[in-house]
Q: What sequence folds into this?
């Protein structure tokens, strides 16, 4: 097992060494299209590794995975992994994954670790697992550093209260929510009920709490008035009723977690409809 890397300079040297072609000694051409950061508390480690394994070939990037360990002794432990994939016509895609354990006080200053490792002139995405600590240093520093924040409010407790502080950062960073993306087929299905749906007074959602609040918020924001929400808990969105009438199940299959994140990594502009739905949910 390789020794842990304890400084940014050691990490950069290891990246350079692993990018060398073992036969020619020349560096492989970097093919990154972004820097993808992920903040991964202990509860989400296994889930994030599964998602990252499905992204590498679709989004060649430098990925920086941050594992906060606030109760450990102060320090930084890093590791580097460079993978190459055949891309046809003799070309290879080269991806870089940097895993960093932020220990003790290092948890409070993640930007000082991330910023030297960002690829110049490329967009920076941040995937935050779990409920962000709005207003606290780790989150605030990284929001100032990145171009795009990706969350999944399905992972958040106490909904809809966290949508209030989320809405307050919309003017500071572009935000997307995987929970919102999972409602896309149902929003299209509900929109097809126009103009009858304009008279709706109550929506019942069988799905996650986030999906229920976001769908209700979407209807409220589009109609410009109050719509009551009834929620029946389920692991995924399986049914919607409008004033007691079931809505036909939309066509198509739900994407995998890797596909969902992949889709969000291809979006760069603000989603004003989503922002309106969040505000109406809160």
A:
């Amino acid at each position: 097992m390789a020794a842990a890397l304890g400084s940014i300079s050691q990490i950069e040297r290891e990246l350079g060494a692993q990018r060398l072609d073992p036969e020619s000694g020349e560096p492989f051409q970097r093919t990154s299209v972004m820097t993808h950061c992920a903040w991964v508390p202990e509860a989400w480690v296994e889930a994030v590794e599964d998602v990252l394994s499905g992204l590498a070939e679709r989004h060649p990037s430098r990925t920086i995975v941050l594992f906060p360990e606030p109760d450990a002794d102060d320090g930084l432990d890093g590791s580097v992994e460079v993978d190459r994939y055949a891309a046809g016509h003799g070309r290879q895609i080269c991806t870089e994954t940097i895993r960093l354990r932020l220990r003790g006080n290092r948890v409070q200053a993640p930007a000082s670790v991330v910023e030297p490792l960002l690829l110049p002139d490329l967009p920076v995405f941040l995937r935050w697992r779990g409920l962000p600590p709005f207003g606290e240093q780790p989150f605030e520093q990284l929001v100032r550093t990145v171009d795009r924040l990706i969350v999944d409010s399905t992972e958040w407790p106490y909904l809809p209260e966290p949508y209030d502080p989320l809405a307050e950062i919309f003017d500071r960073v572009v935000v997307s929510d995987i929970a919102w993306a999972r409602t896309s087929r149902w929003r299209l299905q509900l929109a097809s009920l126009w103009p009858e749906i304009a008279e709706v007074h109550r929506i019942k959602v069988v799905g996650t709490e986030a999906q229920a609040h976001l769908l209700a918020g979407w209807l409220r924001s589009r109609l410009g008035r109050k719509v009551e929400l009834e929620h029946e808990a389920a692991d995924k969105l399986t049914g919607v009723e409008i004033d007691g009438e079931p809505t036909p199940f939309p066509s198509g299959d739900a994407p995998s977690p890797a596909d969902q994140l992949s889709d969000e990594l291809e979006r760069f502009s603000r989603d004003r409809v989503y922002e309106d739905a969040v505000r109406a949910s809160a």
Remarks:
- Residues 8-146 form one domain.
- The chain has ten helices and eleven strands.
- The first helix runs from residue 8 to 18.
